[in-house]
Write a structure and sequence with these properties.
By secondary structure, the chain is of the alpha/beta class. The protein folds into 2 domains: 23-125 and 187-253 and 354-406, FAD/NAD(P)-binding domain; 131-182 and 273-352 and 415-437, D-Amino Acid Oxidase, subunit A, domain 2 (D-Amino Acid Oxidase, Chain A, domain 2), CATH 3.30.9. The chain has 10 helices and 18 strands. Strands 1, 2, 8, 9, 10, 11, 17 and 18 form an 8-stranded mixed beta sheet that branches. β13 and β14 (291-294) form a beta hairpin. It starts with 29 loop residues before the first strand and ends in a 9-residue tail after the last helix.
């Protein structure tokens, strides 16, 4: 193995297991020179490559991914494309401009994705009927009050729900209160990423299993890969928490490893006993609470662990242990389905910053980066990737200004203090989580 290539280990677990086998594109070999290179074929990189191709139809764009498409973080999420962000704590009137800015970015990404999914006829179970925010324990019930105040003040379309209404819709009596936010979409994230990759413009060339192991600067930027090299004039990095592997944002962005499980396909009788909705997604109003989905293909999906694992996926043995946590949460919500086994489990890594900011802009001469979505990457990553392509091309827009206005990232200490601090911060998410986990 080429030195450093093992940084990009992956596995076949997750949403890709629910899809047909796909033949990956070949790895890059030999020497290449192109005007533009995008590194990372998740939602951010795919959006950047697509927009660059539109802006520069006569120029070649290379899109490089260290893994197979659909094995990175974008396809290991729970499949929520949010339009409205939840800002924990009491509503702060002086933060209204910041709230509005973030939600403009979210909405821009959602709008872009909707168009791309429709125009390319991507079969990713797109379901744009809003998202449920739920509360089961005292802390999250208090937070629900804060959230409702924020939604009211911002004029965001929503419907408050009591325990009876939630039970009727979702088929669980666990939640005591909640809210249906009308904006937002659910989707199959691996199918989305695959679909976007397969429908790229003709002037974009995708290479998979092609990790960039180093970048050198001269008259052009030279990217070193295991079996070749690329020279380019401009480089967009859409590598999220892995930017540090290439020398960027060290001690600014770390990876938090999450895990979840899928049930087997529910029978029609089991589905009929769940509630009025045949498809829904619930986000806990406690930061460490479970994310739950009933998918279009009749599976229940539950994610409720997050930990510092060196920005790596969980091993099969670690994942098996986490499934006992998933199982306990599943049966607490759906005791009538205690007989339904899990069929698949997966882990994924999200990029988080100490002060929950995002990253956007120029990192060095001719090198641009966007990432660090703190768990909201599908819609926001799409917006950031599109805006970054425009910004790197010399464009100006309200979306670019909104992305550039992200707060600077707080500094993180070096290892081993980084590991200890990250582990503590992630563990703190679960403080007083109670029934919401």
């Amino acid at each position: 193995m080429y030195p450093g290539q093992d940084r990009y280990a992956s596995d076949e677990h997750g949403w890709t297991e629910l899809l047909p086998t796909r033949q990956p594109r070949p790895a890059l070999t030999g020497s290449h020179r192109v005007p533009w290179v995008v590194v990372g074929a998740g939602v951010t990189g795919l959006a950047s490559a697509r927009r660059l191709a539109e802006l520069h139809p006569d120029e070649g764009i290379l899109l490089l991914d260290a893994r197979k498409v659909g094995q990175g973080a974008s396809a290991r999420s729970s499949g929520f494309a949010v339009a409205v962000s939840h800002f924990p704590g009491g509503f702060a009137a002086d933060q209204v401009p910041a709230y509005a800015r973030v939600n403009r970015i979210n909405q821009a990404g959602l709008d872009l994705l909707r168009i791309q999914v429709k125009e390319a006829a991507i079969d990713c179970q797109w379901h744009e009927q809003g998202l449920y925010h739920t509360a089961a324990d005292r802390g999250s019930i208090i937070e629900c009050g804060h959230f409702l105040q924020y939604l009211d003040a911002m004029g965001i379309a929503h419907t408050p729900l009591d325990a009876e209404a939630l039970s009727a819709r979702l088929g669980t009596t666990l939640y005591q209160t909640g809210v249906h936010v009308h904006g937002g979409a659910l989707l199959q994230p691996a199918a989305l990423v695959r679909g976007l990759a397969e429908t790229l413009p003709v002037n974009v060339t995708l290479y998979e299993q092609s990790p960039v192991l180093g970048i050198s600067k001269g008259t052009a930027l030279t990217l070193n890969l295991p079996h070749g090299e690329v020279q380019t004039s401009k480089l967009i990095l859409a590598t999220n928490y892995e930017a540090a592997n290439l020398g960027f944002l060290r001690r600014r962005l770390v990876g938090s490893t999450l895990s979840g499980s899928f049930s087997r396909v529910l029978s029609h009788e089991e589905l009929a006993g769940l509630g009025d909705l045949s498809e829904w997604g619930g986000l806990s109003l406690h930061g460490g609470g479970a994310t739950v989905r009933l998918t279009r293909d009749r599976r229940l999906c539950l994610r409720n662990t997050a930990e510092f694992n060196g920005a790596a996926l969980l091993s099969d043995s670690q994942l098996a242990k986490r499934q006992s946590i998933h199982r306990h949460s599943f049966e607490r919500r759906f005791p009538g389905l205690a007989h339904v086994p899990f069929e698949f489990a997966w882990s994924g890594v999200e990029g988080v910053s100490r002060n929950a900011t995002n990253f956007f802009g120029r990192q060095a001469d001719s090198i641009y980066f966007a990432g660090g979505y703190n768990g909201s990457g599908i819609s926001r990553g799409t917006a950031f990737g599109t805006a970054l392509a425009e910004y790197a091309s010399g464009g100006h827009s309200t979306l670019i200004d909104d992305c550039l206005a992200c707060a600077p990232a707080a500094w993180l200490p070096p290892r081993p203090f980084l590991d200890l601090g990250a582990a503590f911060a992630i563990k703190s998410r679960f403080r007083n989580v109670g029934q919401d986990r």
